[in-house]
Structure formats: C-alpha cells, structure tokens
Design a protein that fits this description.
The complex is a heterodimer of chains A (111) and B (115). With 111 residues, chain A is mainly β. Chain A is built from no helices and 11 strands. Chain A has strands spanning 4-5, 10-14, 19-25, 32-38, 45-51, 56-59, 62-67, 72-77, 86-93, 99-101, 105-110. In chain A, strands 2, 4, 5, 9, 10 and 11 form a 6-stranded mixed sheet that branches. Chain A has a 5-stranded antiparallel sheet with strand order 1-3-8-7-6, with no helix packed on it. Chain A is globular. In chain B, strands 2, 4, 5, 6, 9, 10 and 11 form a 7-stranded mixed sheet that branches. In chain B, strands 1-3-8-7 form a 4-stranded antiparallel sheet, with no helix packed on it. In chain B, strand 5 and strand 6 (54-57) form a beta hairpin. Chain B starts with a strand and ends with a strand. The chains are: A mainly beta (111), B mainly beta (115).
Chain lengths: 111, 115
C-alpha cells in the first residue's frame, strides 16, 4: 500500500517559469515531509523539508507547501532552470520511524 | 571523499548466484537503510537498521538478507539472485535522534543486472 503518492510521473516546464510538483499521502501520523532530488547515476540528495506544524517553508528558489487537511504537499521552483532537470521524490516520516518515498516525478526544464 | 559509499557500483550476475552489496558511511550515523528503485515504483525499503543490534524488515524483504557488521557498515545479500531483482539499489543513513531536521543521506547506488 503506497502511503506517499506522486501522481505525475513527468513534468516539462519552460526555463524561467514556475515548476509545481505534487505529492499526496494517506497516513495522518506523518509529521515531517521532505523533497529529494535525483540526477542520473547519483543517489537522491536532500532538497527541502517541512514540519507538520508549518504550512510553508522557503529556501531560495524552492518552496514547499503543506496542506494537512488535504494530506497534500507541493514543491514550487521559481524560476525554473535547466539544472533543475532531475527526478524529484517526496518523502514522509513519523519522527523516529522509517521514511516512505513517493514514486518520483521527472522534471524537464526546457531552455 | 563521499560520506556514503557503495560497492560495487555495477554488477552483472546469473540467476541462482549469491551476491553481496556493501555500504559504508563516515557520517557516524546510527541508522542505515537499503532501498531498491524500479522504474515507476520509486524507492522501496528492503531492510533498515536503527543501530548495530537492530535489524528490521522493510516493505520488500523477501529474497534479501542484511548484516550490520559495525555502525559504519551495512551489507545487503541476495542469497539466490533472480531476474526480477534487477534494479538500482541505494544505501542510506540518518542520524536518528528524532530531531525535526532528520533527513537521509544516500549513496551513489549499485546497478544490478540478474541474467
């Protein structure tokens, strides 16, 4: 049973525009959420996170929004750059327990 | 030097063979994990270890075993490899102190092909 879902396998965006990647979860016990970025031939790397007590966290061009009532989070990248082209995984955790990852969204930023 | 290393990076083996994938970390983290990635399925947890004496099964542990030889080393074994174990395997670590800022750090992956 997939507790964290990313329903869009791929997304293409023009350079300079906004990229919005979405993630849904089913377990209301999750209290911490993360986004990872993965380039080909490399392991995933941590990008940004948010605690369940917040609804927004911003780090430069990256902002994560959390809607607990909808069990939904999103990652906004503004402005998108060609170097942002990668696979993005969202993950959720109940603090102290194992991580659950989504299936990933492949983002392509077109120059 | 990388904080989390995996050996080998690529491996081709035959059905029925026993193989071991190794993971080492220099981050001093207590928690270590093994995942596999298949196209369209994201990262699936195979086994995880919260300290040297603690081993736990993940979502897809059948056909796999692990050994936590030390805090820094966590090995994944396929006792009798089968073709549907062809995948990309990742090792990861986390500090595991329950802090809000907990995250996982991944190795570069091992690409395994079972013929």
């Amino acid at each position: 049973d997939q507790q964290v879902k990313q329903n869009s396998p791929s997304l293409s965006v023009q350079e300079g525009r906004i990229s919005i990647l979405n993630c849904d979860y089913t377990n209301s016990m999750f209290d911490y959420f993360l986004w990872y970025k993965k380039y080909p031939a490399e392991g995933p790397t941590f990008l940004i996170s948010i605690s369940s007590i917040k609804d927004k966290n911003e780090d430069g061009r990256f902002t994560v929004f959390l809607n607990k009532s909808a069990k939904h989070l999103s990652l906004h990248i503004v402005p998108s750059q060609p170097g942002d082209s990668a696979v993005y995984f969202c993950a959720a955790i109940r603090t102290g327990n194992q991580f659950y990852f989504g299936t990933g969204t492949s983002l392509t930023v077109i120059p | 030097d990388a904080d989390v290393t995996q050996t080998p990076r690529n491996r081709i083996t035959k059905t029925g063979k026993r193989i071991m994938l190794e993971c080492s970390q220099t981050k001093g983290h207590d928690r270590m994990y093994w995942y596999r990635q298949d196209p369209g399925l994201g990262l699936q947890l195979i086994y995880y270890s919260f300290d040297v004496k603690d081993i736990n099964k993940g979502e897809i542990s059948d056909g796999y075993s692990v050994s936590r030889q030390a805090q820094a080393k966590f090995s994944l074994s396929l006792e009798s490899a089968i073709p549907n174990q062809t995948a990309l395997y990742f090792c990861a670590t986390s500090e595991g102190d329950g802090r809000e800022q907990e995250t996982q750090y991944f190795g570069p992956g091992t690409r395994l092909l079972v013929l």
